[in-house]
Write a structure and sequence with these properties.
Chain A: It catalyses: 2 [molybdopterin-synthase sulfur-carrier protein]-C-terminal-Gly-aminoethanethioate + cyclic pyranopterin phosphate + H2O = molybdopterin + 2 [molybdopterin-synthase sulfur-carrier protein]-C-terminal Gly-Gly + 2 H(+). The structure holds two protein chains of two kinds. Chain A is 34% helix and 33% strand. The two termini of chain A are 21 Å apart. Chain A contains four helices and eight strands, in the order βαββαβββαββα. The model of chain A has no long low-confidence stretch (mean pLDDT 96). Chain A has a single domain, classed as Alpha-Beta Complex (Aldehyde Oxidoreductase, domain 3), CATH 3.90.1170.40. Chain B has one domain: Beta-grasp domain (Ubiquitin-like (UB roll)), CATH 3.10.20.30. Helices cover 28% and strands 23% of the residues of chain B. Chain B has a five-stranded mixed sheet. In chain B, strand 3 and strand 4 form a beta hairpin. In chain B, helix 1 packs antiparallel against helix 3. Chain B starts with a strand and ends in a 6-residue tail after the last strand. The chains are: A alpha+beta, B alpha+beta. Chains A and B meet through helix 2, helix 3 and strand 7 of A and loops of B.
Chain lengths: 147, 81
């Protein structure tokens, strides 16, 4: 299991290849990447992501442990960036490896659902008009109930 | 104890963290003390349903006791991923 909270960009291809190489016998590898989305109609200058150093790593570690207890996983990778990111830049990725695809897919979705509303990150959108904190959606909280 | 603020809570209060000497028994008691201080605290804590709290880096409820807690953090609902 590897968890990295970082400002530096990451290379999705390199990370996915290295992760897959480390679990060569696993059978299934799923990756998800979150990217800075532009506003409808454009105009996003940057996204600023703040986090709670210490709690972030602990919360992600707990979420990954929960996933490992629930599904048969060979390995888990979570990378999440913070700081100022340009539109289109990768924000985060998760990778899961399992003997079968169902476990890998479900665990990846579980990780994403929990990272969204239980990992202490806050996003702010910067435009020519100013800066707005991104509000959490009820749907994100509701998504946790299915687990 | 150390009290930390994140995102718009930090912006409204104008501080990322501060040391608070308090006898507050619960998070809600601490919030009441902070709100009584100054307008900027009142503005930050006006709507508790819009806030979350962590005690020693674990999510908690507003009625949670503060005994033995070293670090309290207030922030809006998280938007990770």
């Amino acid at each position: 299991m590897r968890i990295s909270v970082q400002t530096a960009p990451f290379d999705l291809g390199e990370e996915a290849n290295a992760f897959a190489a480390g679990v060569a016998g696993a059978g299934a590898v799923v990756t998800f990447t979150g990217v800075v989305r532009d506003l409808p109609g454009g105009g996003l200058q940057a996204m600023e992501i703040e986090h709670y150093p210490g709690m972030t790593e602990k919360a992600i570690g707990d979420i990954a442990q929960q996933a490992a207890g629930r599904w048969s996983l060979a390995d888990v990778l979570v990378i999440h960036r913070y700081g100022r990111l340009a539109p289109g830049a990768p924000i985060m990725m998760v990778a899961t490896a399992a003997p079968h695809r169902k476990d890998a897919f479900e665990a990846a979705e579980y990780l994403m659902d929990y990272l969204k509303s239980r990992a202490p990150f806050w996003k702010k959108e910067l435009t020519a008009e100013g800066a707005d904190w991104v509000a959490a959606k009820d749907a994100d909280e509701d998504a946790l109930h299915r687990w | 104890m150390e009290v930390l603020y994140f995102a718009w809570v930090r912006e409204r209060i104008g501080l990322p963290r501060e040391r608070v000497e308090t006898e507050a028994a619960t998070v809600a008691d601490l919030v009441a003390e902070l709100r009584a201080r100054e307008e900027r605290y009142e503005a930050a804590f006006a709507d508790l349903s819009a806030l979350r709290v962590a005690l020693d880096q674990e999510l908690a409820e507003f009625d949670a006791p503060l005994e033995g807690v070293r670090e309290v953090a207030f922030f809006p609902p998280m938007t990770g991923g």
